[in-house]
Amino acid sequence: MAGVLYIVATPIGNLEDITLRALRILKEVDLIAAEDTRVTRKLLNRYEIYTPMISYHVRSKLTQTEKIVAALEEGKNVALVSDAGTPGISDPGEELVKLVIDAGFKVEAIPGPSAIITALVLSGLPTSRFAFDGWPSREAGERRKFFRSIKFDRRTTCLYVAPTRLIETLESVSDELGDRQVAVVREATKMFEEVFRGTAAEAIEHFGKGEVKGEIVLVIAGCPPDQVKEVEQPKVDLDARLVELIRSGLSDRDAVRRCAQELGLPRREVYAAALRLRREIGSEGRYSQKQRSD
Fold first, then answer.
1. Tens digits of per-residue pLDDT, 221-272?
2. DSSP character for 91?
3. Which of these, 27, 24, 30, lies nearest to 5 by C-alpha position?
4. Beta strands 181-186 and 216-220, pairing class
5. CATH number corresponding to 116-227
6. What is the rounded CA–CA span in Å between residue 290 and residue 285?
7. In the β-sheet with 78-81, what is the strand arrangement from edge to edge?
8. What is the 3-state secondary structure (H, E, C) of 33-83?
9. In the CATH hierarchy, which fold is given to the domain comprising 4-113?
């Protein structure tokens, strides 16, 4: 019988935030694939878990993927963990999960902590509709384009932000979105947890007084209903442009990024269109077929 890949959520700070089921799985599996074995070792030592580990991160994923798949083929069970929170969110675990599913193996999720959800519920901002957009661009121009693209989006937006880029990101928010309410959730669940609530300008003043450290989630309020405007439809057809970019030799990911920039659309919207095209046309020759059908 083939093995199972378990996606195991681990604490984002406080080691007591591990579930009983997660502890059982980590003890019972044959192998743990950890983003950083040194970080995961602290958790395992705390709960006297001695399961063998291998590293699985951006630099090692190509070689380690073969080991993980081989283990599953041998009937061994593998647990995938990130440094903190739920694996597969803005980390290479996403690619492993897809590959394992495509290979026909069973995948189970062991739910638990998530920095995004933790920050969202702490923010005091609307939670009924929200979006997660990963890490904002390091480039000022691209970052400003992104915030312009969500200016009239009524959903609450959550972002991961590096502490060294917090001020410049807040400045982009203030410049493009105006007097928008934000929450900066820093070091959630840890000893020095901080939740700042206020406008982007107020957050700049608060965090500009000294060096900012720790893990940060930035939560941004959606556009107030009285400020929502009808967004003009792009002059270029989204599907046609995606097809054109892919046929030029770009990867799906790069085509989505370029298309979002050119059309001024949220990347998540363009990504959804790319997934739809993939489903409609199939995996082999999908873009060339779509081009001919047009």
1. 999 988 876 544 444 588 888 888 888 888 888 889 888 888 878 888 888 8
2. S
3. 30
4. antiparallel
5. 3.30.950.10
6. 9
7. 53-55, 31-34, 78-81, 4-8, 106-110
8. EECCHHHHHHHHHHCCCCCCEEECCCCCHHHHHHHHHHHHHCCCCEEEECC
9. Cobalt-precorrin-4 Transmethylase; domain 1 (3.40.1010)
